[in-house]
Amino acid sequence: MTCPDCGHRNDAADLFCASCQAFLEWEERPAPAPPSPAPAPSSDSSDSSDPDPAPGPEPPPASRPATPPPSVPPRPTAPPVAASVTPPRPRTPPRAPAEPPPPAAPRRPGDRPERGPDSGPDTGAEADAAGHPPPPRRPPGRPCPLCRTDNPYDRQLCRRCGVVLDTAPPSHRARPPWWRRILRRSDRVLAAGSRPRHRTWRRPRLALPLTLLVLLLAVWFGRSHLPEVFTFTQDRTTKPEALRPTEVRASSEAPGHPASAAFDGFNNRYWAPVNPGSGVGQYLEADFDKPVRLRELLITSGSSVNQDEFLTEARPAKITVLLVAADGARRTKTVTLRDQPGQQAFALRGSDVVRIRLTADADFGIRLDRRLTVAEVEFFGRR
């Protein structure tokens, strides 16, 4: 079939042009009948035909003599030649069968065939009888994934059904990632002009009621933990705020260093017990008028944030934190401090806390003329 667009001649079974890939007609056009050969002119007519006379003035009709045309005698034909008789050729005696060549030694993978002394230079490719190297190998054909028709390598559409062929060779096809292999649809290739079959959603019969029943049961048995889940979400999404206690007190207070000095927000004033020496057992206590949710504890130990003043008094080394909830539940946690000036932060979780007590369990720099000192205590959380 000849393409009407580019004039390329295609095979009879092709439906798409191999050159411009245009769609060919479904029915092949009838080929025009070859013209009949003209009859050869006979020898008599060619011999008897005279050349046209040179143009000239015609004589008047009255003066032209009426003479008949001369008759041409027939040309004699050649006598038939007798067929030459060829004498029979003498028969040659049959040759003796040649001895079979010795069996070749088995070759291992990667070995090259042996070359004789008369062989030319080893060019890496077998040459033909004339010594020319073989033509370069063309890439293999590209089979159609739908009708399995073998197409040339440079085609993009199947010449039989028109399906788009894969442009990448099979050895270079990149495997899609796992998430595309999970979400992709079927690799079924449709023929040209066809549409995918419409699939309707099948109504679930028992899956949907069972799923709803499982969810209702999970909510029913986990209803006691739902407030904690909501509270945990709020703690993660909201920024903690400073919690100011409504009332503070201490086990004892030295003159000029009350318990309120540890909760006033300044680090140049501090709390100290009345008796110098070891401060083990001394404590600070803070009350809240409404239950709070505690998330963080900040402690500034010593009498000042300056290094020189910090070393003049004793400092707490270990503190036990007691949390009292609104329902009377108690929970304790022990924190260890570093012997350095400045704030030290500790993660401290507590719900519905109404009272907090900090008790000293160990000290740094204990001397008979020194007192235990705490410059500042801060609480952070959410009300």
Structure report:
The protein is α+β, with helices and mostly antiparallel strands and 383 residues long. Among the domains are: 1-28 and 141-190, no CATH class; 241-382, Galactose-binding domain-like (Jelly Rolls), CATH 2.60.120.260. 11% of the residues lie in helices and 21% in strands. The chain has five helices and nine strands; from the N terminus they run H-E-E-H-H-H-E-E-E-H-E-E-E-E.
Short description:
By secondary structure, the protein is of the alpha+beta class.
Structure keywords:
383 residues; alpha+beta; 5 helices; two-stranded antiparallel ribbon; Jelly Rolls
SSE blueprint and pairings:
Blueprint: H1 43-48, E1 142-143, E2 150-151, H2 178-183, H3 207-221, H4 226-237, E3 241-243, E4 247-250, E5 283-301, H5 307-310, E6 315-325, E7 330-336, E8 343-364, E9 374-382
Antiparallel strand pairs: 1-2, 3-9, 4-5, 5-8, 5-9, 6-7, 6-8
Radius of gyration: 57 Å
CATH fold description of one domain? Jelly Rolls
Compressed to H and E, one letter per element, the order equals: HEEHHHEEEHEEEE
Give the % helix: 10-25%
Low-pLDDT ranges: 42-67, 78-86, 116-125
Assembly state (oligomeric): single chain
At the first level of CATH, the class of one domain is Mainly Beta
Which structural class do the helices and strands define? alpha+beta
Tell me which CATH architecture of one domain applies here: Sandwich
What is the makeup of the main sheet?
A: 7 strands, antiparallel
Global mean pLDDT: 74
Query: What is the number of strand segments?
Result: 9
Say which CATH homologous superfamily of one domain is assigned: Galactose-binding domain-like
- Helices, by number, come to 5
